[in-house]
Write a structure and sequence with these properties.
One of its GO terms (molecular function) is protein dimerization activity. With 202 residues, the protein is mostly helical. The protein has helices spanning 4-11, 18-21, 34-40, 44-56, 58-62, 66-71, 79-95, 106-117, 124-135, 141-153, 163-174, 182-190, 194-201. It folds into 2 domains: 4-137, no CATH class; 142-201, no CATH class. It is 62% helix and 0% strand.
């Protein structure tokens, strides 16, 4: 398998495998995490240490009320930054709600790490590695899907699309789950200026 080393490395970051990391005097197999560490440009020993520490405290971290973590920091941000901060908090509440797999998937674990690194530098490398893992395509499915979508967007009758427009259309199609609902988007766009609001309402 082409990505076997990478998949084995990524498996250590799955919270379902954290029980292995909690074993006293646990030692990573030789060469473990070296590939993912090189991709993230972090030190292997540092990431091993941070991952073990995070895994050992994961249950306590996962039970933290994220709203409390942000409560003491509101005064340190400007109004604009505060809005972004609240948005992140809302995202955490959404993803970590009961209807999601809040304690058993890499995506939700990443949000816990994100919460930690906003308050302590102890897990900066771990945060970087999780970002790399979540951006990887471990199979060719997503690549093949993008080429299939490309055929439907750039047709013979629509062959003069600029690269910027083509990229935008591809992104909207491939990442449709991430796209903000149109009514929210219009409201946010209208809030940028009175002229924009007038144009949207008119």
């Amino acid at each position: 398998m082409i990505n076997e080393d990478l998949i084995q490395d990524a498996a250590f970051f799955d919270p379902r495998t954290f029980s292995k990391l909690k074993i006293p005097k646990f030692m990573f197999p030789e060469g473990s995490l070296s590939k993912i560490a090189s991709m993230a440009k972090v030190d292997v020993l540092d990431i091993q240490r941070q991952l073990i520490e995070f895994a050992q405290n994961y249950e306590a971290i996962a039970n933290i009320d994220t709203s409390i973590l942000y409560q003491d920091y509101n005064d340190e941000f400007s109004e604009k930054e505060n809005e972004n901060h609240i948005d992140i908090e809302d995202d955490l509440k959404c993803v970590l709600s009961e209807k999601h797999c809040s304690k058993s998937c890499i995506s939700c674990t990443f949000l816990y790490v994100y919460t930690l690194v906003t308050h302590t530098p102890n897990f900066n490398d771990l945060y970087t590695v999780y970002k790399v893992i979540l951006s990887l395509a471990f199979t060719q499915v997503s690549c093949e899907r993008s080429f299939s979508i490309l055929k439907t967007i750039k047709t013979r009758l629509r062959s003069t699309l600029s690269n910027n427009k083509l990229e935008a259309f591809m992104f909207m199609n491939l990442e449709r789950g991430m796209i903000v609902p149109h009514d929210i988007f219009i409201d946010r766009l209208g809030d940028t200026s009175t002229e924009m609001k007038r144009m949207l309402i008119g």
